[in-house]
Every structure is written in C-alpha cells, then in structure tokens.
Design brief:
Elements (H helix, E strand, L loop, with lengths): L3 E2 L9 H31 L5 H22 L2 H12 L7 E5 L5 E8 L2 E10 L7 E11 L13 H4 L5 E5 L3 E3 L3 E4 L7 E4 L3 E3 L3 E2 L3 E4 L3 E3 L4 E8 L3 E3 L3 E9 L3 E3 L5 E2 L2 E4 L3 E3 L4 E2 L1 E4 L25 E5 L4 E2 L3 E3 L2 E4 L3 E7 L3 E3 L5 E6 L3 E3 L2 E2 L4 E2 L3 E2 L3 E4 L13 E3 L2 E2 L11 E6 L2 E6 L2 E2 L4 E8 L6 E6 L6 E2 L7 E2 L20 E4 L2 E4 L7 E2 L2 E5 L2 E4 L3 E2 L1 E5 L3 E3 L4 E3 L1 H4 L4 E7 L2 E7 L17 E2 H8 L9 E5 L1 E2 L5 E2 L3 E3 L4 E3 L1 E4 L3 E3 L4 E3 L2 E3 L11 E3 L3 E4 L16 E2 L11 E3 L12 E9 L1
Parallel strand pairs: 6-9, 6-64, 7-10, 7-65, 8-11, 8-66, 9-12, 10-13, 12-14, 13-15, 14-16, 15-17, 16-18, 16-19, 17-20, 19-22, 20-23, 21-24, 22-25, 23-26, 25-27, 26-28, 27-29, 28-30, 29-34, 35-68, 37-47, 40-42, 45-48, 47-50, 48-51, 49-52, 50-56, 51-59, 52-60, 56-61, 59-62, 60-63, 61-64, 62-65, ...
Antiparallel strand pairs: 1-2, 2-3, 3-4, 4-5, 5-69, 30-33, 31-32, 36-67, 37-38, 38-40, 39-55, 40-41, 43-46, 44-45, 53-54, 57-58
Helix pairs in contact: 1-2, 1-3
C-alpha cells in the first residue's frame, strides 16, 4: 500500500502525468514515514490547547516534513514534482495527502523559480470545533546546471569546505587588519573575486582564495593556504605553513616571508632578502591575464632570452626540492634537489646547489633590469648536466566563484514592517505580526492632554497627528504611558525620519529601539540608537553610526537570555531580549508584537534563514540598474548576525561582527577602495546561540560571470548562496499564514 496519494486528479491528465505523480508519491512517503510518530506525539501533547493552536502545530510540523524531503529528493523525483507543479496554481495546487495522517495535507504550485507549498493542519475534523491552519512556504527549486561535473550538486564544493567568513565579489583592501576569533580547530577562509590586498595583519584566518592577485604585507600573519589566479606577493613577517598556488607568479619580498611547504606557480617563484621557500614548482609561463602583476618587478629573462622559473636572491633559500620547467637564478643561499629544464645562473661565490638541469651552468652572472648578463664561465657546483630532463608540471588550477544578485524588492512581502515615503508621508505596511492588525499605517504624533508622543501607528492618512489611541513600534523612552496599549512609550523623540531618499532610524532619547522582526526600507538607511532585534533590509545603502547594537532575530532566539563569549580575545557578557511571547519576564522584548512566522519557525527549531541576517542591502531598479547595496559598519557597532551587501562592504573603526560578511558587487564600484576594512574588524566565527547559523541560505538569482564548469580548481560558493542555483532546493526562505 502506498503511503502517499494525490487527492485531486483530472480525467484530462495523461497516463504519463499520473505515473509521474505516483512516483513522486512513493518517494515522499519514505521521507514522511519517519516523521509521523513525531507529529502524532505533538498532537497528543497539545490536546489541552485550543483547536486552532493544534492546527498550527500540525501545519508547522508539516513544514519540517516537506523540507526534509525536498532536501534529500533525487533529481528525477524533483523533476517530476516540478513538472506537475508548473501546471498548477495557488487556487488549484497539486494536492498531496499522507496515508494515516488525515490531519496533514499539502498542495504544490510553481511560480518562476520558486516552488510554493501550501501546508495545512486540521484538527477536530467533522465536528463543530474543526479548525484548519495553512502555512505557505516558499522553496527555491530549479534544475541543476548540466555542465557541472558533480551533477549540479553544490555540496562537494562548499559544505565540505572550510567556512567562508568573508566572501567578496570585488577587490578587498585591508588597512587595519582582520582578527577572526574562534574557539574551535576549524579552518576559516576569505574568498575574493578580485584582488586581495592587506597592509594590516590577519589573525585567525587560515585560507585565502582570490580570482586575482594577492598581496599580504601585515606583520605577524600566519596562514595555511593561498590560492590565486594572479600573482601572490608576500612581504614582512608573513608565514604560509602549507601551500601557495598561483596561476601567475609568487614572490617573497622581505626577510620575514616564509613558505614552509609547497609553493606552486605557473609563472616564476622569487625570494629576496633572506626569505625562505621550502619546495618550489614553477613553469615559468604565467597564465595571469589581469592588470595587478604584484611580482612584475622581479620578472627576468635568461642570458639567451629564455624564461626564468625560479630566482633566489639575497641569501634566500629553498630547503626542499626545486622543480622548474624553465631556467633558474641563484645567489648565495641553498638549493637542495634541483631539477630544472633550462640553465642555472649563479650570481654569488657562496652558492650551494645540488641536483640536475638540462642546460648550462654559469657563474659570475649579474642580474640586470631585464635579464641575466655577463656570466664568466661554467659554475663549479654539484649539479649534473642532463639534456634529457623533462620537467612536466601541471598548470595551477583556477579559483572559480559564482556570483549572485540580492534584490531587496524580492523580500518586501516577507517584512513584518515595510517603510516607504509616499507623497511626503511615512507609510508602513504591517504583515504577520501578532498583536497588530495587518494593513497600511502612517507614522504620526499622538497628542493626548497636550503631550506630543512620536511615531504612533495611525490608520488615518490626513492630518499631522493621530487622533485615535494607537500602537507604537518606536521606543525612545524608558517610560510607558498608563492606560495605553502595552508597549506604548513616552516618545518625545522620533525613531523614524526621512529626507532626500534617506531614512534615519533612531536619534535622540534613551535606550532607543524598535519592534523586533524583519524591517524593510525603500531608500538608504542610517541606523543609530542603542539596542535592536531586527533584520534590516534596504533597497539602497545601509550605514551604522553611534553606539549601535543589532541582534538578528535568530541570534536572539524566541526566549533571549544571557550570552557569554570569552575566548580568543573576545569578552562578551550580556543578555538578549527574546523576540517571541515565551520569553520570561527578565527577557521580555520591548514590544508585545511578535513576528508570527519567525516565532513559529523557532518553535519547531527550524529557523527561517532571513532572520540570520542583521543587514541586507541593494536592489534592482525598474530600468535594470543596480541601486545601493553598500553596507558601512562603523566604530561602536556590535553586530550579532551576518551581513549581506548587494554591492560592497566597508568596515570602519574596528566593529565586532558575530557572523559572516558577504558583498556581491552587483552595482558600481567605489574604485580602488571597493570593499575596504579601513581600521580593522573583528569577526567572531563560532560560539553562537542555538538558533543562529551564519550561513543561512537564502534565495538569490545567479548573476553573470558564473563558472560553467569548476574543473579541478578551487570552486567557491558564496556563503549565503552556497546551494542556490546549484541544487534543486536551497532552503525554505520564508513562511507565512494563508
């Protein structure tokens, strides 16, 4: 007996469609069967609750059942489901039922790249107490890229790779350093689609991948691996303990630079001023085609005009083997185990070399600006001349990064509060908030008994003040108003203002905050104030200033509570407000207005990914141009959540971010200071609260310039879009009651 059946079918459907649906049904039954006991148990435990509450619990249990199924579905079964859903609509979805669980049903339909599931929980069916709750969940569902050698599954490229704490799709220049705090043994990486350049130190970072050149000049930096499509130049006291790979050239240009294991270059390898290589492989044939040739100053040709693969200058050394498909220049250090398909040029009397070459050995040579010259004769070193040597080295594989586009307009409908300036009036649309009726409100003053209380929700559009006793989502005072709805504060100062396309949130007052949840703005946003529990989304730019602290809803969790983090240079001992009704009196949120979908998702321990983000910015205008997307985090800002900039990220004054940073470079560049960390930034990479994930996947469109085939190279999935566009299902991004 099959465990899954379609409740609705048309006689006009062909036998092929019916077979597809049956196959999908059999597959879903396997995923669902293990969840039935959990759902039945939930029903038994909630018999004392109101029927509507039971229906909601059943529906939300179904959300997790469907999600787990879609995560593990085969490509064939998903294709069948998508085919069926494409011919369905919201009013006539493809209906799915569960044998043995009449209280749970679902309907699917497809709209664009999204698969919609209407998941229904019903209690007390057939009685007067019958109640049905429907949750609409949106999944990202597209076919995989047939050109991907892994069959379109992103997991081998990203889930097994070290976490990417910084992922930038444009150049990154660091002047103040990056300190990555972690209490685990996990490796953490920085991925840059462009140039990576730093004069500050990198602490706690293990791996750098860049599609252009890399320059590291900060003192006391220790890394494990560097992989670059361009040149890699290392200066000052920087140590790489495992591997450097460059499709261009590698140059160690100061005495403190050390490469302890393998350095592998398509171009040449250079070391100067007592820098140290261990093992070297170089082809002498750079594959770099960009404009940031960090090692160009050290490019030389041999006496015959041939290519140079290795140049060890100024008492530099290679303690391991040296393998080169081109000629080698050596000064006064040591080379053990040389194997070169070319000539050997000795420039100092105290050179120590052993190995074999295919060409000539010459001493007394001088390295001029462009080439080796004035060699005086054959070198007397322990090197064999073997013209049959063939040093065949593979090309260094490329770093490939996919791009994606964040569009704030796609998430307006998912915001609990969406702000717009309409004809000079501040308009806010409230959605999915317990305690506030859904609809459009206007932010106005409320003036009872000669008082001017700011930022009340008012249904009446006309007039400068609100006549009814309304509710407020603004807090600029510690005092509440007697006789008013809960959460009504004596706001002598406003939380929200708008001028020339820019919103200012927070201002004067004491313990400034706004209602918890997802908040959306049309325009730029300047965030001030004290303590927020929000995901801020802006169609323009976002800037923080002053003593601003923002806790993403998932980081705070439903109940809030104490949070301590004391390790690796971080000392935090604080407490968060909860965002939901179950928070105890000590951690009650400032406002009794609870984001329903976020709280329901947290209640079944399946947090919605949007609530992992503290800030998200950028949008696509009607003319197709990208607008905004820069996020500037200033000194004094505490960020408890991840940051997603649709364009570029700027860190100033040493802010601390508990989460990951992504900048997608969809708009215009700021120039040489594209993504910039100007005075340092501290990133806390672990030790988070139970409901928070720094890599919560959201649904983004794949941008131009994505790699069709990863090949053998380092293939990078941007942290928030690791699965979107590669696998059929990225994640459930949003959910709401219908």
């Amino acid at each position: 007996m099959k465990k899954f059946h379609y409740l609705k079918a048309s006689k006009q459907n062909g036998i092929a469609t019916l077979l597809i649906l049956i196959l999908v049904g059999v597959s879903i039954s396997v995923a669902v069967f293990g969840s039935l006991r959990y759902i039945q148990g939930s029903q038994n435990q909630t018999t004392a609750l109101h029927a509507q509450t039971q229906a909601q619990i059943t529906a939300w249990s179904g959300v997790e059942v469907i999600y787990q199924y879609l995560k593990n579905i085969s490509s064939g079964d998903m294709a069948a489901l998508i085919t069926a859903a494409e011919s369905a609509t919201a009013t006539a979805p493809v209906e799915v039922g569960f044998d043995g669980m009449s209280a749970l049903s679902a309907g699917f339909y497809k709209d664009g790249g999204d698969l919609y599931a209407l998941i229904r929980g019903t209690t007390e069916a057939g009685t007067r107490a019958q109640s049905t709750s429907t949750v609409e969940v949106i999944y990202h569902a597209i076919a995989p890229n047939p050109n991907d050698p892994k069959g379109g599954d992103c997991a081998p490229f990203c889930s097994d790779a070290p976490p990417s704490v910084i992922t930038f799709n444009r150049d990154l220049r660091v002047s103040g350093g990056i300190v990555l705090s972690s209490s685990s043994e996990e490796d953490y990486q920085i991925n840059v689609k462009g140039v990576m350049s730093t004069s500050g130190s990198l602490v706690g970072v293990d791996i750098i991948n860049a599609t252009d050149s890399v320059f590291l000049g900060g003192a006391n930096t220790v890394l494990k691996k560097i992989h670059s499509n361009g040149d890699v130049r290392i200066d000052n006291s920087v140590t790489v303990t495992e591997r450097i790979e460059a499709r261009g050239s590698i140059c160690l240009t100061n005495g403190g630079a050390v490469s302890q294991k393998l350095a592998r270059a398509n171009g040449f390898a250079y070391a100067g001023n007592s820098a140290k290589f261990s093992a070297i492989q170089s082809k002498g044939e750079s594959l770099y085609i960009g404009e940031n040739e960090e090692c160009l100053a050290y490019l030389r040709k041999g006496e015959k005009g041939e290519k140079i693969g290795v140049w060890l200058d100024g008492n530099s050394s290679a303690d391991g083997f040296v393998q080169s498909s081109a000629s080698v220049i050596h000064d006064s250090g040591t080379i053990d185990k040389l194997k070169a398909e070319g000539d050997l040029y000795i420039t100092a009397d105290d050179s120590t070399v052993s190995g074999e070459i295919s060409g000539d050995m010459k001493e007394g040579c001088r390295v001029e600006r462009l080439r080796v010259a004035n060699c005086s004769g054959k070198a007397s070193v322990d090197v064999d001349d073997n013209e049959d040597i063939n040093v065949s080295l593979k090309d260094v594989p490329p770093v490939e990064m996919k791009t994606a586009v964040f569009n704030a307009y796609d998430y307006e409908k998912d915001a609990n509060y969406a702000f717009k300036n309409v004809n000079g009036k501040i308009e806010v649309t409230v959605r999915d908030v317990e305690g506030i009726e859904e609809g459009v409100y206007y932010i106005k003053e409320y003036k009872p008994q000669y008082n001017n209380y700011k930022d009340y929700l008012c249904k009446v559009e006309n007039g400068s003040d609100c006549k009814e006793i309304g509710k407020t989502i603004c807090k600029t005072s510690t005092s509440t108003i007697s006789g008013h709805p809960p959460g009504a504060y004596e706001n002598w100062n406003a939380c929200f203002s708008y001028s020339n396309g820019k919103w200012t949130v927070g201002g004067g007052g004491s313990q400034i905050s706004i209602a918890q949840g997802v908040v959306w703005f049309k325009g730029d946003v300047d965030l001030k104030g004290d303590e927020y529990y929000n995901t801020f989304i802006a169609t323009g730019h976002i800037v923080t200033s002053g003593s601003h602290n923002n806790v993403a809803p998932n980081f705070a969790g439903p109940k809030g509570g104490p949070y301590k983090r004391q390790s690796d240079g971080i000392s935090v001992n604080t407490a968060f407000k909860g965002i939901c009704s179950e928070a105890s009196s000590s951690y009650k949120p400032f406002f009794p207005y609870y984001p329903k979908s976020l709280c329901e998702a947290l209640s079944i321990e399946s947090p919605l990914p949007i609530a992992n983000y503290a800030y998200m910015a950028g949008s696509i205008a009607d003319d197709g141009e990208y607008v905004g997307g820069n996020i500037t985090i200033a000194s004094g800002t505490g960020v408890y959540g991840s940051v997603l900039a649709g364009n570029e990220f700027i860190g100033k004054g040493g802010p601390t971010i508990f989460g990951y940073i992504t900048a997608l470079a969809a708009g215009k560049s700021r120039g040489d200071n594209a993504n910039a960390i100007e005075e340092g930034v501290r990133i806390v990479a672990d030790g988070y609260t139970d409901y928070f994930s720094p890599t919560g996947v959201i649904d983004l469109e794949l941008g131009s310039g994505q790699a069709d085939s990863p090949g053998d190279g380092t293939y990078i999935c941007n942290s928030p879009v690791c699965l979107a566009g590669d696998a059929y299902i990225a994640t459930k991004f949003s959910a709401r009651y219908r």
